[in-house]
Known about the structure:
By secondary structure, the protein is an all-alpha fold.
Amino acid sequence: MSGYFWQLVGISSALKVLLLPAYYSTDFEVHRNWLAITHSLPLNRWYLDVTSEWTLDYPPFFAYFEWLLSQAAKYVDPKMLIVHNLNYASVETVYFQKISVIVMDLIYVLGVRSCLSALGVVKSTQQHIAGSMLLLLNVGLIFVDHIHFQYNGFLFGILLLSISALLRQRYLWCAFAFAVLLNFKHIFLYMAPAFAVYLLKFYCLDNGQFVHSMLKLLSVGLSPFLLSFGPFWRQLPQLMTRLFPFKRGLTHAYWAPNIWALYNTADKLAVSVLKRTLPNAAPSTSSGLVQEVKHVVLPNITPSITFALTFLFMLPILLKLFLTKTREQAKLVFLRAVVLCACSSFMFGWHVHEKAILMCLIPLCLLTVVDRRDAKYAYILAVAGYFSLFPLLFEVDLLVPRYSLYLAYMAMMYGQLERMYKPKPKFHILEWIYFLGFLAIPIYEHFLSRVLGLHTRLPFMPLLLTSLYSALGVLYFFVRYYIYALDITWESIGKRRVSQIKFSAAKRKRKTK
Length: 513
């Protein structure tokens, strides 16, 4: 039993190797182009080159990482490093890039091991086995990294190492690791408020040396930014427009399952009911293109509105975290704050990608082994969240792998919940109906639409159904989990109401006397 962790690592790695010949998306060409840019062009041209439409739009640490990879790539196939060699995909190139993802996942393995230990999960217990399985065999990372193609695994590894350092009260290491992570991929800003509030409360304010602690924290936290952005200080305006491209529109080409997917649909329905017509020149939310769009009936949403909503929905859990008195209690609140800050950004953010749901799902794997109630909500989000990634794997050859891997992971997760908790987490009948409702989407996509001839007339309907139905589950999770994390119950509301009534009655009695 003691060697199960590394056995799981071996099983996970073997599965990834088996997927080497599988389909890969345009993100493969994105990263090949970045290899070519960083290898062939001077540093001051990295964020200016527009030879390909897939321009470099990650922070500089990731660019440096691509440069390091290119030093090995030149011995495998030098042609992949030619900037003008667009869409180049020799067998050597494909295998080199895919194997590099597998190798970098070792950082993720270290993060998983360190985080479970920092949480106090005892080795060889069912909780440790379950946490290892949920994280090491995570179906979302398999979909996104090892089929679709990206480098998310090692980035989540750095996140887990940062969380581990915080849980061990190594606050400067936590700040440094998280700052490094932000300079690899800035989407992790979603979680930054939770880290900032915890470090402010328990590192800067609690030790009685606020100024000294704050200066140390800032010096450690800002040093990676200086190393990262320093060489590009002349190109900072251009670099920032690459990192924050607000002209890409409210939603991605495939709507992420968030509040704006529901908003777009409501606008479409309103157009149909009110019989409004869309101007020919106006871009549509369902055009399948990445562009700025305007709603016809409902008010248009601007970046400032999404920022305001995101911040407002983060505030309650951040306040709870700040007001938590003890470090032991705050560690659990912090993990929930990480999930809810990420989920707030996913639900209300500007131009959110469907892959960003992993930022909620991965930290939830840690909470799954801590508390039965967290485990229940984690399962609800997992059902909707991992299913919402299916449009990334649209090739016919991937239908069997995507359904089999998804169902196997969900069955494994449910089985682990049963083993960990007695009694097991219970789901409401309506929640079970929602889970089973996902069966209707593939039935429509692969059978009914073909029989009725709708696959040619309404080709985007399966994507729309996937986005909308998943969005309902994500929204349900967000509301229910937020209420749970804030410890709001009908009993607590009733008690506060009764105490208010008694106080008012006592006050009236004093006045009558």
